[in-house]
Amino acid sequence: MSLYTIADLHLSLGVDKPMDVFPGWENYLERLTENWQKTVKPEDTVVIAGDISWGLVMEESRADFEYLHKLNGTKIILKGNHDYWFTTKTKVEKALSDWGCHSIRILFNNAYEYGDYALCGTRGWMNDQNDKKILLRECGRLRLSLDAGKKLQKEPIVFLHYPPVYGNGECYEILEILHEYGIKQVYYGHIHGYSSGYAINGERIGIDFRLVSCDYLQFCPKKIV
C-alpha cells in the first residue's frame, strides 16, 4: 500500500477543451492512463492537488470523474483555481455518490488518515494583496484542515494547489501557518511548462516543497511513501 500525488489533470472528457494543443501535452490522456495503471495499485491512495476538470458545472465534469473513478486506487481531490464545477463539498459528494464514483474523496476543511500521516490541504492562494479576502479565507481553510489532522495524532503532510513559494516570492500568510503547525512536507501544482524552472523543489525555510503538476511529472503520479 503506497501514497502518491499529482496535480493539474485538466480533464475535458465532457467539454471541448483538449490540453493536447499545448506543447508537451500530446496524447496526455493515454499517457496518464498508462502510467497511472502501471504505477498505482488498487490498494494505493493518490492525492490530486487541484485542477481536476474543465467542466463548469458538475454534470459537465461527470465523464471526467467516471474516468478518474476507474483508475486504480483511492483518489483524494482538492480544489484548484480552474475547478469551477466545485460548489459545496456536500453537493459534490452527493453527485459522486449518485454516479457510483465511490473511490473519490474530497479534501476540503478536513483531513484524512493514511498510515502514520494526516493528509491535509486546501487550494491556497498567491501572494496577492489585492485579493486579501480570498487569501484569508484559504488560510482559514488550511487551519481547519490542519486542526482536523491534529486530532488524528499523525504527522501532517500538506497538499496545496497554489505554490506558497515560487521563484523569489513567498506567500507569507500561508507560510506562517505551515510553520505554526510544524509542517515538513508540502506538495503543490499550478505551475506548467517553462515556468516550472522557477518552481521550488527542495528545502526552503525548513520545509520540503515539491511541484507535482501533471506535465512536470511526465503524467505519472509521484510516490510519497
TrEMBL record:
The Calcineurin-like phosphoesterase domain, residue ranges: 3-194
Molecular function per GO: hydrolase activity
Pfam families recorded: Metallophos (PF00149)
Listed InterPro entries: Calcineurin-like_PHP, Metallo-depent_PP-like, Metallophosphoesterase_sf, Pesterase_CT488
PANTHER family named among the record's database cross-references: PHOSPHOESTERASE, TRANSMEMBRANE PROTEIN WITH METALLOPHOSPHOESTERASE DOMAIN-RELATED
Name the record gives this protein: Metallophosphoesterase
Organism expressing this protein natively: Fumia xinanensis
